[in-house]
Amino acid sequence: MTGKVFLVGAGPGDAGLITVKGREILAQAEVVVYDSLVGEGIFGLIPEHAEMINAGKHAGCHTMEQEEINQILLDKALEGKCVVRLKGGDPFLFGRGGEELELLAEQGIPFEIVPGVTSALAVPSYGGIPVTHREFASSVHVFTGHRKHGEPLQLDYEVLARLSGTLVFLMGVSNLGEICGGLLAAGMKPQTPAAVLQQGTCAGQKKMISSLAKLSQEVQKQGVQTPAILVIGEVCALGNQFAWYEKLPLYGKKVLVTRPKERSKLLADRLRHLGAEVLEIPTIRLERIRNNRKLWKELERLSNYQYLVFTSPTGVEVFFEEMKETGRDIRSLGGAKLAAIGAGTAKALSERGLICALMPQTYDGRHLGVLLGETCKDGERILIPRAAQGNPQLIQEIEKRVKVEITEIPIYRTTYERPVWMKDLQKQFAQGLIHMAVFTSASTVRGFARAAEGMDYGLVWAVCIGAQTEAAARELGMKTVTAKRATIDSLVEACLLV
To answer: Lower CB density within 10 Å: C or N end of the chain?
Structure first.
């Protein structure tokens, strides 16, 4: 059976700017052929099982030729795969999307186009520059500033100089001097406001606003990294007045979130709302233990327990999935009181219509153990369904204070991930391009260490959710900042300190 190719625009870099449809299609991908301009945060949206093929192109350096890319799309579709051709910005705006469809159309391969947010509009917006404004510009004109090797730019400067609207040049920084000089020679006013916008919508965003006559000199003085775009027109004068992105508290920060994929969205969204560029790179996976006969046995006698203790939202989810699959509901809990290690776990119980009776003020195993030890009576029975490698302090603190019968059952296990991008991430930490890594458990720290084995962990600023996580990070030599409370809100506040 023939597959299908989706030509998807990934937007200008910020993972939040991929369209809803683009995100939905990406979640179904079996093969992803991606470009170098795709924002790193987008990779966290790609299914783990998807085959990933790098078709990136840089100036003077092509991973593969265009004809080879076209053939790969055809071949993978003929294998019956759902193929996503993922391109930065919009695939039809200087993205060679039309060329990539020609072979598919000739061979009768079904395809769809998912437009993307183009950097021609989004990057100026993030720089506070409206490309149109009633008082300054009633039109916007988009050009490529890129030329084929050995060929001149296909620009009619005489025509461009007479345009009254905003001029936007994509991929034009390498030819900045020629473009500015050509417009000046054609009669455009030297004092015309102009801007170079570097790595817009991402942590490396940088804005240089000057006049047309002085812009090249300013760029040479400050330096610029690609990708960058050139904007020329009166609207550029508004860039400082309308600046908004750089005023966000985490502007310019790239943050690595190591939490399991199914748990990272809330934290990642909070950080993005504060201006951070977020890379969701899970370093651990939480796997439910199947055919858990020991748990099934205890489910049969739940009514014998006075306390049911949960140490994570995952524990809550797995426990109640097991109850459902064995034909039980909350009535099987009998009179057991529910204890939770913290607010996130208590919330998971609340979502199932259950009220948490016990929760420590400090969200960790030791304090939960102290609370239970001081609350329980001798002879009572406690069931603790949790991770296979749970914190021993929980049980130790209970047993110090009271004589009870404790049944601890592993219901899920933690396995370590090795993200595809970890090799590049090591380089980014070394260059100071990633500013911090956020850890929500000691196991995420250990997972990071395994995935990035051999790197200098002293380069890492670790933002930790609690004391045990901090201890694991410090043991590796990381610099640490620890949240005051083991909550997402407090963890985000700690990120503001780095």
So the answer is: N
* One-letter identity of residue 433: L
First-to-last C-alpha distance (Å) of the chain:
52
Q: How far apart are CA 236 and CA 484, in angstroms?
A: 43
Average model confidence (pLDDT) across the chain: 93
Please determine, for residue 313, whether its predicted confidence score (pLDDT) is greater than 80.
yes
Using CB atoms within 10 Å of the CB of residue 111, give its burial: 0 to 12 exposed, 13 to 18 middle, 19+ buried. middle
- HSE-CB for 478 with a 13 A CA cutoff: 31
What the block records as the tokens of 157 is 């400067």
Please state, in angstroms and rounded to a whole number, the distance separating the CA atoms of residues 342 and 486.
Answer: 7
Contacts of 113 (CB under 8 A, 6+ apart): 6, 7, 91, 92, 97
- Rounded to whole angstroms, how far apart are CA atoms 318 and 304? 21
Phi-psi region of 491 (alpha: psi -120 to 50; beta: other; left: phi over 0): alpha
Looking at residue 146, its pLDDT comes to 77
In one-letter notation, the amino acid at residue 156 is D
Task: Write the DSSP symbol of residue 410.
Answer: E
| Concatenated DSSP letters of 360-381 | -SS-SHHHHHHHHHHH--TT-E
Q: Provide the pLDDT for residue 170.
A: 94
Q: Give the pLDDT band (50/70/90) at residue 56.
A: confident
Per residue in 154-199, pLDDT (tens digit) is 899 999 999 989 999 998 888 999 999 999 999 999 999 999 999 9
pLDDT, mean of residues 415-444: 86
The pTM of this model reads 0.89
DSSP letter at 385 equals E
Phi and psi torsions of 86, nearest 5° = -100, 120
- The set of catalytic residues is 35, 57, 171
Confidence of residue 61 (pLDDT cuts 50, 70, 90): low
Number of Cβ within 10 Å of residue 211's Cβ equals 18
Under a CB-based contact definition with an 8 Å cutoff, are residues 196 and 219 in contact?
A: yes
Backbone angles phi, psi at 106, to 5 degrees: -60, -35
Which tokens in the block code for residue 325?
A: 């699959």
- Spatial strand order of the sheet with 4-9 comes to 51-54, 31-34, 82-87, 4-9, 111-114
Segment 460-466 shows an average pLDDT of: 96
**Cα-based angle 464, 469, 473 (whole degrees, multiple of 5):** 85
CA 206 to the chain's CA centroid: 21
Which residue's structure tokens are 């350096």?
Answer: 61
pLDDT beyond 90 at 395: yes
